[in-house]
Amino acid sequence: MRRRGSKIFYSLLILIMVTFFVLTINIYTGPYTQYENENESIPRPWKPESSELKKRRDLSLKEIWLQKRINRNRGAFSKFKGIYVREAYRVSDEEIRFIYLENQDNDMTLKAQISPSVGWQPVEYSCFNATCFDYLFCSMATRFGSVKLAPTTPHQPYIHLTTEKSDEFTMVPVNDVRLHPTSHRYPHTLGVCLQPIFFFTDWTVILQFFESWIAQGATKFYFYLHSYTWQTKRVLDFYKDSLGDNLEFIDWSDLPVHARDKGSYDRDPNSRVFRHAATAFMHDCMLRARSHVKFVANTDLDDLAVSSSLNISDFLENASVRHSDAAQFKVDWILSHQPQNWDPIKNPKDVNFVLQSVRVLKIANIRYDYRVSKKMFHRPERVTNFDMHSVYRNELAGNRNQQYTTVEMFDNPDLYFLHLRRFERHLLNPLPVEFNNNFNGSLLMKLNTRMLDQLAKRIDRTEFAESPLIPWTMEARQTMRDLEQCRREAFGSILDDQNQMCQQSSSGCEGMLTAGVPFIKAPQTWINIAHKALFNTYVEKTEKFSLFS
């Protein structure tokens, strides 16, 4: 009996020691204990090997062609002379930055004036990548203007911009996004920059977007608006009432163009802008988020971020402790199918997300450029130039002559994006698709439950819950089909590498819409600071009387 009691005692003692050991490990390491998939590096220009040039269809490969073309046409006369700007940002005591669009062969110098006492100074400019051109044969390129200041310069709400040959200047608003020099505190840990929605009809995915991010810790949203339906506006207005200042709407219009030139490939500057200035949007939002949000995701509505803990902000906080110099965390972006189930949905109460129906494709079955593309969470004040999938340059880390780093977290089950393609075609002979049957779908079911609980509480006892938002399904399907067609056709031409026309341009798609949807459009937000015109003047110089004249 005594020996049996001793065995029980020693068993309990061992159990207590093991429990203590496990708890100690968790306290000091947290729930994310596998770090072998994390690779930290400094961004450097990427150059593909020659053997990959035909295999890859990565957008960045178009830069090679563009460089050859610009060398061939260096002396050619530009058809598009406009220089378009929106807002500026004071990023430090010594610098104001702004983003502008101009044709890639424009060589006009910009000038800036902080105050009349300082005078005019040339604007320094840079490009977002090594070639200084945007994507897919679209010649309207994104530029970054920089104005240097004396450190003691007081903040001014406006900056004056002009061009070297202009006799007018433009007043551009300046947003102060400086960090506190010693003890900055971010109002938000996790924020989301959403690409401009254009000709948008699927209002149900907006609920999925907000609820999925909120369920995983996001508290700040920058929502860019180009054109959308009245149903979409009802949903956005509801979330604005619910989230208040944590949701910002940013109008993002087309570039200004004469009505007689609108839709012309040779005269409308929007015909040369890639997807409503996507590159400019990303950088505008990242500048806007500086000092307000610690981690920011640049994303689209068909991207679903997933964290194994369903807490992305905590995951990033832990990762930033391990990588204190990180400017961004780069994670997998996995192509997936989310079946449409639109027809029964008449009002917001009918939406149930059905994430459990999402099917993840096998990596080998995904087109190569989508297979290798990734998504990122940025530290806004640490990144300089990037696009949706790549980093070109980060800020310098403190007083060191070295950039902040990029942390790659590939094949990491704790954080990734699913790219939910929702466009469906009823093909007679569809390509065979292989799905990853080993994907952990239970996590999506858990996320779906949390999202439904949140939505139910949010719409409880509101008129919005049962507001009829019909008809919409037929218009949505046709508009989505038209926009998908516009990826390959526009201006009466097939868009490919042979005819070398701008693909997915802002003005190319509008003329292809066939559903007759009356879209709400953003008001004009771009200013052409290079605009020239003839005007009457109603003042003349007075002649001075002189005895010697």
Describe this structure in words.
It holds the Pfam family Glyco_transf_92. Its EC number is 2.4.1.-. This is Glycosyltransferase family 92 protein. It is found in: Membrane. The chain is of the alpha+beta class and 549 residues long. It has helices at residues 2-29, 62-72, 204-215, 230-243, 278-289, 312-322, 368-372, 441-459, 473-486, 506-510; strands at residues 38-41, 83-92, 95-103, 110-113, 120-122, 124-127, 140-148, 158-163, 170-176, 188-197, 220-225, 227-228, 247-251, 293-299, 303-307, 326-337, 359-360, 374-378, 383-386, 391-394, 405-409, 415-421, 489-490, 493-494, 520-521, 527-528. Strands 1, 10, 11, 13, 14, 15, 16, 17, 18, 21 and 22 form an eleven-stranded mixed β-sheet that branches. Helix 3 crosses helix 8. The termini are far apart. The model is unreliable at 18-34, 46-66 and 72-77 (pLDDT under 50).
Indicate the mean pLDDT: 87
Portion of residues in helices? Answer: 10-25%
Q: Given the structure, what is the number of helices?
A: 10
Q: Describe the main β-sheet briefly.
A: 11 strands, mixed
Feature tags:
10 helices; globular; eleven-stranded mixed sheet; alpha+beta; 549 residues; nine-stranded mixed sheet
Short description:
This protein is an alpha+beta fold and 549 residues long. Helices cover 24% and strands 25% of the residues. The longest helix is centred in the first third of the chain and has 28 residues, at 2-29.
